[in-house]
Amino acid sequence: MTLAQTWSVALVGLEGHLVEVEADIAQGLPKTSLIGLPDASLSEARDRVRAAVVNSGERFPDRKVTIGLSPATLPKTGSHYDVAIAVALLAAAGAVEVASSRRTAIIGELGLDGRIREVRGALAMTLAVSRSGFDRIVVPELNAGEARLVPGIDVYGVRSLRQVLALMRGVEVPDEEPVRAEPRLLSESLTRVPEVDLHDVIGQQEGRRAIEAAAAGGHHLFLHGPPGSGKTMLAERLAGLMPELSTEESLEVSAVHSLAGLLNGEAELVRRPPFIAPHHTASLSSLVGGGSGVPRPGAISCAHRGVLFIDEAPEMHPLTLDTLRQPLESGFIEVHRSAAVAKFPARFMLVLAANPCPCGLSGVQNAVCKCTPQHLARYQQRISGPIKDRLDIQRQILPAAHRGSDLDPSEPTATVAERVQLARDRQAHRYRSTAWTLNSQVPGALLRRDFPLDAPSRQLLEDHYASGRLTGRGFDRVMRVAWTLADLQGTPQPTLDQTHEAFQLRTGDPLTPYTDHRPLKGPTP
Amino acid sequence: MRTRNAVGRFGEELAARYLTTNGFAVLERNWRCELGEIDIVAREGDTLVVCEVKTRRGLGYGSPLESITYRKLVTLRKLAGAWLQCHQLRPAAIRIDIIAILLDKNAPPRVDHLRGAA
């Protein structure tokens, strides 16, 4: 046998492509060449494989060895082809039976001593292999946890090249036997208590209301107020209010996290909505994804189905912040690089926090703001109109001295999360015949046609529209928040009070009960 | 120095015997000129075979075949030409073979014959 092949996977974004790894041993002086558009880390596979093969007690063929990765036009990157290359090579040399490796894909990075190291993106790779109708996949033992989450494929977790060869030869596996994976029951990993609880937040009725509504309807949120008033504290507790991810959502999120290297060894599916808080100095490509060659997911994709929290948002470069506009609309991001175009999911809830001005004291009672009006205007303009327009809920968070004397014990996360879950159930039920599940996702046209507001509520918004306080888009957005408030309270339709509150949540006005301020209407000339 | 020569000499002896058993006619051994030395010149059918023999006692420095560099190959090519000129021969084909011999204290020597090292 001088020619043999094995299978591995190339990832472009989250999409896996099967890669055929061929090894040919020809007459000629010893030389190993690796072809099929490898990048630097893959080219080094030659030396890793050589050392690993020798140190696993096998003979490295001293002939001309050609290793081809096909499709040859697909750029390949990373070190996870090592094991597949080693097995193909040894099969070509006749050291291991090739027929037994036919319906098997292999991923893993080799250490020089033949140990198999973990790789990134094992979950997405396993998904691709499973969809291509393969029977089994050999993965590093450390990745076996995530790979086993994929149904319908046998996963073998291995520790060394020796173990892989034993597996292929059908002899007893040395050291410890790699356990054949049983498909894990997803419900087993359901429980994870959030580390932070709403109970810790004293007072802040308006802030609590804002994050409850945001969590229930999936609305983007803007919190502003002086330093130390609790913006970050509230934002951190938002993800805890959101319900568990569904099985499908959780596979999506886990695949992104696996690729980004966020899953740890004994990985379980990500069941909780993720909370990602990039620093305001984050670069454009770290936020939306990028990197040279084949792109990697950025922070917004890691926050998929969860919360993306940007503290000190006006400090972030406006251009960077503005890149969020497109994914906010579409729910995904396409990253173009020379080698490939990768599409990552990015349906996140955006939470921005900001100080009111550079010194942070504007709008605070008994404090003197030292900023000039120009300073103030420039600071507030750093969050662009289009971004602000997508923030359905705005709330000013005032510091301790102003938050009233309410000493009632604060509600814990669990209680609020229950209400949020109920509200989400109501939405899912109402939109069951559509493609949407949350108020924030439903198109305005559909909402106006199938679920119109009652006459007084609509009149209220019409008045605000006429007075210029509400734009056309804002009209729809207030309507959605109004529905969320109705769902939270369990009313069949938004009441006038709820619509009024939704309007205040959007404009950032203090929450006050509805009173009719409308001027008496007389006959207009 | 002496042991190394002895190892080399032993390997060449082994290679010559190997070639003879495999139907080669050994024409000349250790032919020298100003360019260097050809270990074995042999004939297989119509083909003239210029043979380089490399012997090693272990794999500590890599396999014997790995010690043949591109430069060594170029030298062998030139030597083949010089030998032909010297003997005024025009064979149908010329080939350069490498015979790698691995010596082992506890086992018979392993002979690895690489035909037509490019």
TrEMBL record, chain A:
Gene3D superfamilies named in the record: 3.30.230.10, P-loop containing nucleotide triphosphate hydrolases
Annotated segments matching region Disordered: 503-525
InterPro entries: AAA+_ATPase (IPR003593), CHLI-like (IPR045006), Mg_chelat-rel (IPR004482), Mg_chelat-rel_C (IPR025158), Mg_chelatse_chII-like_cat_dom (IPR000523), P-loop_NTPase (IPR027417), Ribosomal_Su5_D2-typ_SF (IPR020568), Ribsml_uS5_D2-typ_fold_subgr (IPR014721)
Pfam families given in the database record: ChlI, Mg_chelatase, Mg_chelatase_C
Gene Ontology molecular function terms on file: ATP binding
NCBIfam families associated with the record: YifB family Mg chelatase-like AAA ATPase (TIGR00368)
Family: Belongs to the Mg-chelatase subunits D/I family. ComM subfamily.
Protein name: Magnesium chelatase family protein
Species, as recorded: Kribbella sandramycini
TrEMBL record, chain B:
Superkingdom, taxonomy of origin: Bacteria
Listed GO MF terms: endonuclease activity; nucleic acid binding
Keyword Electron transport included in the entry's annotation: no
InterPro entries xref list: Restrct_endonuc-II-like, tRNA_endonuc-like_dom_sf, UPF0102_YraN-like
Alphabetic keyword roster: Endonuclease, Hydrolase, Nuclease
HAMAP family found in the cross-reference section: UPF0102
Similarity comment: family membership: Belongs to the UPF0102 family.
Protein's name according to its UniProt entry: UPF0102 protein HNR71_006192
